[in-house]
Write a structure and sequence with these properties.
With about 500 residues, the protein is mainly alpha-helical. About 80% of the residues lie in helices and about 0% in strands. The chain folds into 2 domains: about 425 residues, Growth Hormone, Chain: A (Up-down Bundle); about 55 residues.
């Protein structure tokens, strides 16, 4: 994900784990919670800090628009495709073990990213980071669920989520400051001491746990998912440079669709699939996942391209661009509980329709400021309204997913919805990047417009015509994102349950 937002249904993944009856002391439980917070901080800070630093990364590494998208999408690809497998691996082989493997892998990949001399090697490191995140993220949630009895999980998860909100708040500021005053590579080096602290606390305090009824891993499904998404995203990302009629592009797009179709067929036949298709027999579950796909597509796309507009069009520093994310993190961090009360009082359907529509309004407001806008007449109103809309939607979304399936399947249902949100971000960067490129080239109408776009995004071309063309393309991207959010609200109004039990 990009910016300070996190995917939904994390509370559901905690609640679905059976707690071990180990009689852990309160001190031991606090240490376990510290380990999960420290481990999760690797992904919280890295994800939220990197977004505002991407313009500097593209400039320093000479990365074009496609490479810039892949710096983000390589991570989202492996994380989105493997996060369900990562959770299942923890249940089968030991949650502590898999969590530690994820932390170590993420840290080693961060070192590789920090040393990367080229965009290609940075992209490879980001892909490995995504694999590590796919192991440690569900592992952290499962460790909380396994270590705390049901009556204590709400408070434990609230502490973990609160820490995530804090990291989401400071991440863009840290990333922006480092890009402006130090070196963007330090974003990756921050992960090393965090990982060492996580490993130390985990080895000393966290007991091993596993699910005795865990099934075998769905290796075929995971392989088809990652191959299909990789081919599809490569085709979409390469299309602006090579053309949609290019044989490689057409082959990649067609191959991606075929592989994803094969994934669906394999899941239908697999005895223990990573994504049980039977879940989608529930109209509520299907509708909520369509809502999630559209809403997180809109949010992720906007958060990816917004820093480029603020830095290249409005002339902000990376630190100032990071500060634009603050209203989002503050509103979601402070008012999530109040949003749950609103859903309980007035119904989940209202929150799941009004919330996404408000998010769409916020995205439109982010598109309106002209060149030279300041903070108050620029992103403040749009980011605040966007945050209010997302805050209204996320809590009841989680509860609706959990309430749409049998109690014994809430864990996998929550995991599927979480994966849908991550894949939505992957698709958003690729598809909206294609739109941005097409609108920019058509607006500027010069030879080799794609190269000019790369120069604008890297800060090498500051001509008025190029900047204006980028801002026009950005407004189209935000408009399409807003449309997706509004459609998500319509889907919520049509499919969401009137009332659901709180997920917390």
């Amino acid at each position: 994900m990009h910016g300070p937002q996190r995917p939904p249904c994390e509370a559901g993944q905690v609640q679905s784990v059976t707690a071990d009856d180990a009689g852990l002391s309160q001190g031991r439980k606090r240490a376990i919670l510290i380990a999960t917070v420290l481990g999760s901080a690797l992904t919280f800070i890295d994800g939220s800090a990197l977004g505002v630093a991407l313009p500097a990364i593209q400039r320093d590494l000479g990365a074009g628009p496609a490479a810039g998208q892949w710096i983000s999408n390589a991570y989202l690809l492996t994380l989105g495709a493997l996060v369900l497998t990562g959770g299942a691996a923890g249940d089968r082989f030991g949650r502590k073990r898999v969590f530690l493997i994820g932390v170590v892998l993420f840290a080693l990949a961060s070192v590789a990213c920090g040393l990367a001399p080229s965009a290609e090697l940075l992209i490879a490191g980001r892909a490995i980071q995504g694999i590590g995140a796919a192991l440690l993220t569900p592992g952290a949630l499962a460790l909380i669920g396994a270590s705390f009895p049901p009556e204590e999980r709400g408070k434990a998860f609230g502490t973990w989520a609160g820490a995530g909100a804090l990291f989401g708040m400071i991440g863009p500021l840290v990333g922006g400051w480092l890009a402006d005053h130090a070196d963007w590579r330090a974003i990756f080096w921050i992960n090393v001491p965090l990982a060492l602290a996580t490993i130390f606390v985990t080895l000393r305090a966290v007991p091993e746990s596993r699910d005795p009824d865990a099934k075998s891993l769905d290796g075929l499904g995971a392989g088809l998912a990652i191959a299909g998404l990789a081919a599809l995203i490569w085709g979409l990302t390469a299309a602006p440079d090579r053309g949609l009629e290019n044989g490689w592009v057409l082959g990649a797009l067609g191959g991606g669709v075929a592989l994803l179709a094969a994934f669906v067929l394999a899941e239908a036949k697999e005895a223990h699939p990573m994504m049980p298709l039977g879940l989608f027999r529930s109209p509520v579950f299907s509708g909520i996942n369509v809502l999630t796909l559209l809403l997180y597509f809109a949010l992720s796309g906007a958060m990816f391209f917004l820093p480029f507009d603020l830095i290249r069009v409005q002339g902000w520093s990376a630190t100032e661009a990071g500060s634009a994310m603050l209203p989002f993190a503050v509103v979601m961090g402070l008012f999530s509980t109040s949003a749950g009360w609103v859903a309980d009082r007035f119904g989940a359907r209202l929150s799941l329709s009004v919330g996404p529509i408000l998010a769409g309004v916020g995205l439109i407001l982010l598109a309106l400021p002209g060149r030279g806008a300041g903070y108050v007449d620029g992103p403040l109103a749009g980011m605040t309204v966007l945050a209010i809309g997302m805050t209204l939607a996320v809590g009841p979304l989680t509860a609706a997913v959990m309430g749409a399936v049998d109690p014994g399947r809430t864990g996998v249902a929550s995991g599927v919805n979480n994966a849908v949100a991550r894949v939505a971000g992957l698709l958003a960067v690729a598809l909206l990047g294609l739109v941005l490129s097409a609108i920019f080239v058509a607006t500027l109408d010069v030879p080799d417009g794609r190269s000019v776009l790369g120069a604008v995004m890297a800060g090498a071309d500051t001509s008025d015509a190029a900047i204006d063309a980028f801002h026009t393309a950005f407004r189209w991207v935000m408009g399409l994102s807003a449309a997706c959010a509004v459609i998500a609200g319509i889907v919520g109004g049509l499919t969401a349950p009137v009332r659901v039990q709180s997920a917390a």
